Write a sequence for this structure.
């Protein structure tokens, strides 16, 4: 699953809300249908989640972290191939006697 798909699942995750004052907290509790404060966890930064959904949320975050790391490594490999294998540095003698450094695409 790609990081965009995982992020979409997190964006549409039910059983979670953010509140920064008492009114928002009460509205959030009604929205997720929590009976009392003992049925929720705080996840920091004003976020609250149902205890029953916390394990699923944590698993999605772990999967997202793993996928982002994989995508970052692939991107780094592509950059390295693009800059070190497919391109080579050239020094071309100019008409006025100097040299110009440039990159040429290698024929693959």
């Amino acid at each position: 699953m790609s990081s965009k798909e995982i992020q979409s699942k997190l964006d549409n995750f039910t059983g979670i809300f953010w509140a920064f004052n008492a009114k928002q907290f009460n509205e959030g509790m009604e929205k997720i249908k929590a009976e009392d404060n003992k049925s929720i966890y705080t996840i920091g930064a004003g976020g609250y989640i149902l205890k029953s959904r916390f394990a699923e949320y944590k698993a999605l975050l772990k999967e997202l972290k793993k996928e982002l790391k994989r995508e970052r490594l692939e991107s780094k490999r592509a950059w390295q191939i693009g800059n070190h294998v497919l391109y080579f540095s050239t020094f071309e003698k100019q008409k006025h006697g100097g040299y110009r450094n440039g990159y040429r695409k290698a024929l693959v």
Observations:
- Strands lie at 16-18, 40-44, 47-50, 87-93, 99-105.
- The first helix runs from residue 3 to 11.
